[in-house]
Amino acid sequence: MATEQGPSERTTLIRGDNRAVYGLDNIKEILAAGIIAHVGVNTPDGPIVLPMAYAVRGDEILIHGSVANAMMRAGKSVDVCVTVTIVDGLVVARTPLHNSMNYRSVVIRGEATRITELQEHSACLKLINDHIAPIWDTARAPSESDYKQTMVLSVPLAESSAKVRGVNAIDDPEDIAGPHWAGVVPLTSTWGDPIPAPDLGDQAAPMPEAVAALIDTNAHPL
Q1: Are residue 98 and residue 124 in the same domain, yes or no?
Q2: Does residue 9 lie within any of the structural domains?
Q3: What integer best gives the mean pLDDT of the chain?
Q4: What phi, psi does 194 have (nearest 5°)?
Q5: Which of 87, 115, 148, 186 is the most exposed place for a label (fewest CB within 10 A)?
Q6: pLDDT for res 163
Q7: What's the CA gap between 90 and 72, in Å, rounded?
Q8: pTM assigned to the model
Q9: Which residue, among 67, 54, 62, 73, has the nearest Cα to 148 in the 3D structure?
């Protein structure tokens, strides 16, 4: 059962409001299925949007990047916009301007806070890593230098909304009986067979079970 939350003025859908989803549980479900967030912020050189790995912790989304990253530097302690979109299919209509896509998308707006406490910083980076490929406990542990070069920002999910489309083409009534084709072309992304790095030495450990699990079960399809 989704937990309902009241959308803010900034996250209330106006166009296509019949596809709006405000339940926090449903929003988290979409975020769990995605792997890339596009994060937008104003910088001294103008607005910028960058793709980033992320994870959800409680009622917040975590993003990370290099401390040299202009977006990360500009994003701390200011309003940012985070979006996650999963395309589920191409909707082909009987007329070109009625073409669409089936999708699940989330928009999050809020103030980004930098995570500075060392243990929390490490825990957040583990969550982000493990959302993609959970190798944190089997790979080389991050060094002090690695930690110093990586920034984590937290954005609350309080101002968030989702939009979901999962229907066929919506054509004009007079076109329905016409000669033109309409339908949906589903889009499914799955992990392929891993390609070992060409510089793996004889002493390299076998493929981590977490990586093999992606292929065995396609545990993280988009």
Answers
A1: yes
A2: no
A3: 88
A4: -65, 145
A5: 186
A6: 92
A7: 33
A8: 0.85
A9: 67
60 burial class (0-12, 13-18, 19+ CB within 10 angstroms)? middle
If DSSP codes are grouped into helix, strand and coil, which group holds residue 172? coil
Can you tell me the distance from the alpha carbon of 25 to that of 140, in angstroms, rounded to the nearest whole number? 34
CA distance 54 to 121: 14
Residue 55 inside a domain? The answer is yes
- Quick: pLDDT tens for 130-171: 998 899 999 999 999 999 999 999 999 999 999 999 999 999
The tally of CA atoms less than 13 A away on the side-chain side of residue 1 is 0
Find the angle CA(5)-CA(10)-CA(14) to the nearest 5 degrees.
90
**Which two three-digit tokens encode residue 210?**
């977490």
The Cβ of residue 74 has, within 10 Å, a number of other Cβ atoms equal to 18
Cβ–Cβ under 8 Å, residues 122 and 31: no
Find the CATH number of the domain harbouring 135.
2.30.110.10
69-106 pLDDT, tens digit each: 777 777 667 899 999 999 999 999 999 999 999 999 99
Whether the CB-CB separation of 43 and 61 falls below 8 Å is answered with no
Higher pLDDT residue, 74 or 129?
A: 129
156-161-166 Cα angle (round to 5) = 140
- Which pLDDT band holds residue 37 (cuts at 50, 70, 90)? very high
Coil, strand or helix: which one is 89? strand
Which backbone phi and psi does 69 adopt, to 5 degrees?
Answer: -70, 125
